[in-house]
Amino acid sequence: MPKNSGIHDGHRDRLRQKMADSGFSMPDHEILELLLFKDTPRKDTNETAHALLNGFGSLENILSADYRDLEKVLGVTKNAALHIAAMKLFFDRMQFRKTEGGEVINTFGDAEKFLRKHLYGLPREQCFLALMSAANKVIHTKTLAVGGFMGVKFELRPIIDEAVRTNAAKLLLAHNHPSGNYLPSAADKEVTTTLAQTLSQLGTELVDHIIISEKGAYSFLLDKALEHG
Q1: Which residue in 61, 108, 145, 147 could disulfide with 125, CB within 3.0 to 4.6 Å?
Q2: Which of the listed residues 59, 94, 129 is the one where a domain comes to its end?
Q3: Which tens digits make up the pLDDT trace of 100-130?
């Protein structure tokens, strides 16, 4: 037996061949196994794949999960967790580039629809920016920070730096509330006011700060909520 062979090599080779022959027909747990192979050498990834699906419910939820939560699943190494999380970034980046420079945000409804594509369903709070031209076209997006389940820390300096770096005329700030509550906190209001004043001195307009949640969205500019379902 070759020195580097292992008891799982035959199974992995069969899965790779199955992927080559008819990848679309593979069940979800086998697709996960393929993703886990590289960062989980010499271990059975079948149980780990099933544990991920049992814990998160679907491939979509696994891809949207924070790597720190993925890493808590037995058998998932930190490298494997980062690899899976990178897949979501890859898909999001490709989706954005299809519309980059062409998406126009004129209303609260436009903004909410755009932001839901980036923030809806995420398990942790994230601070998200959309940098815009004077004609309200999105020219760049960036996730600035990832927090916990109940909060994310807003740092003004990185937001301002990103506005200056992209030479944005306008800036849309957003964050999500995984809890479902879309109403702002006192801290949210304070940081929004300070950011608007600082950006104004630089010649950049803060068009809005929007909270996205499963149940609705809130606009700081309009002091208005849009409730869903």
Answers
A1: 147
A2: 94
A3: 556 899 999 999 999 998 888 888 888 899 9
User: How far apart are the C-alpha atoms of 62 and 65, rounded to whole Å?
Assistant: 5
**Co-location of 21 and 69 in the same domain:** yes
Burial 28-61 (b: 16+ CB within 10 A, else e): ebbbbbbbbeebbeeebbbebbebbbebbeebee
Residue stretches of the chain with pLDDT short of 50: 1-5, 229
Q: What is the pTM of this model?
A: 0.59
CA distance 185 to 16: 50
Q: 64: burial class by Cβ within 10 Å (0-12, 13-18, 19+)?
A: middle
Residues 6+ apart with CB under 8 A from 58: 28
Nearest-CA neighbor of 174 among 227, 217, 140, 122? Answer: 217
Among residues 129, 139, 145, 144, the alpha carbon closest in space to that of 208 is found at 129
